[in-house]
Write a structure and sequence with these properties.
GO terms for molecular function: transmembrane transporter activity. The chain is built from 16 helices and ten strands. By secondary structure, the protein is of the alpha/beta class.
């Protein structure tokens, strides 16, 4: 009887879990955090099963889970969060590894930060690109800082100590908040920095997302750090609508992100945050420590790719996907080819 139970349990586990390294599954995480689209929750065993059999089944699960965890991975599973820039970066890193002879599986568009993070911790994925500011605020929950090196060191140490995860070298991409103005407005008021803007902001209309009204690095922060107040604040839920309004002259200042493709495409001006209100959001691959040991060449490949990425490059890549409707995988492949990482 015990042999049959163990075999049945093993089949159940293998049917549910593809690459489990821990007893907690990705499905269990989503249920525990009550995401709107989460599954109904992990199954529980029939309480009518006698205690002895229940104990045997539980022991079998633990044994099998750890046995599966002990097996060396035969590939690196690359995940991403749920927006265009992440899709592109995931394909770039995955493609570079493949072209270096390292087997890869892609899990693109997992969801938001916490879902991607737990997928990495639980072993459902092996790596994904993350932003230092996001990790600081959402995972580490540390104090906000504008010191890029300090933020990187804080998240690097926290992830290594608590999750056995390694932050590789950051790319030159800092996708943080930015205040954007049109070329005419920049020329009229000689605007280069946010301090310059603070001198004339009372005559200008600001357009931003609804959350910007209350964030500490939004309107309250602009007032506290720069003494900045605007003639009017207009809310735009969608980022693209802000840029449309900026181009049409309906607003003179817009809140966006540093790697938005519209900035270069429309010749908008991103004002320098000279007093350091916005935290840094440098992107870097985060990878499991055990995977780095099993694939010692992966770190060098990923670091070399990160070294050729910056905000200008990311704006161009984002434009190819969002404006020109090219596939992220094709854009990534061409990028790798141009920079010597392709086949």
């Amino acid at each position: 009887m015990s042999i049959l139970i163990i075999k049945h349990t093993k089949r159940c586990i293998e049917g549910k879990i593809k690459r489990t390294r821990a007893a907690v599954t990705f499905r269990q995480f989503k249920s525990a955090h009550c995401q709107p689209d989460c599954a109904a929750g992990p199954r529980s065993f029939d309480r009518s099963i006698p205690m002895r059999k229940s104990a045997l089944i539980a022991a079998s699960i633990v044994s099998l889970a750890f046995g599966m965890a002990a097996h060396a991975a035969d590939k690196i599973v690359v995940g991403t969060k749920n927006f265009t820039e992440q899709y592109i970066l995931g394909e770039i890193y995955a493609g570079a590894l493949e072209n270096a002879g390292i087997p890869v599986e892609r899990k693109i568009n997992l969801g938001g930060t916490l879902i991607a993070h737990q997928a990495l911790v639980s072993g459902d994925i092996d790596m994904y690109p993350e932003y230092t500011g996001t990790a600081l605020i959402s995972v580490v929950k540390g104090p906000v800082s504008s010191d890029a090196d300090a933020v990187y060191k804080t998240v690097q140490d926290h992830y290594a100590k608590n999750f056995q995860l390694t932050w590789l070298k950051p790319a030159g991409i800092n996708n943080g908040y930015a205040l954007i103005v049109g070329p005419e407005t920049a020329a009229k008021y000689n605007l280069k920095t946010m301090s310059d803007l603070s001198k004339v902001s009372k005559d200008l209309v600001l357009g931003a997302g609804p959350e910007f009204a209350d964030r500490t690095d939004g309107l309250p922060g602009l007032k506290a750090k720069y003494g900045m107040e605007f003639k009017e604040f207009r809310q735009f839920a969608k980022l693209g609508l802000r840029y449309d309004a900026l181009a049409a002259g309906q607003i003179q200042v817009g809140n966006g992100f540093a790697t938005d493709w519209q900035i270069a495409d429309k010749k908008f001006v991103s004002l320098a945050d000279d007093k350091g209100l916005f935290p840094p959001y440098y992107v870097a691959p985060i990878i499991r420590d055990d995977i780095l040991k099993q694939f010692p060449g992966a770190e060098d490949v990923l670091n070399k790719v990160s070294a050729v990425l910056d905000n200008q490059v990311m704006q161009q890549l984002n434009a190819l996907v969002e404006r020109d409707h090219e596939e992220a995988k094709d854009v990534a492949a061409e990028f790798l080819k141009q920079h010597g990482f392709g086949k």
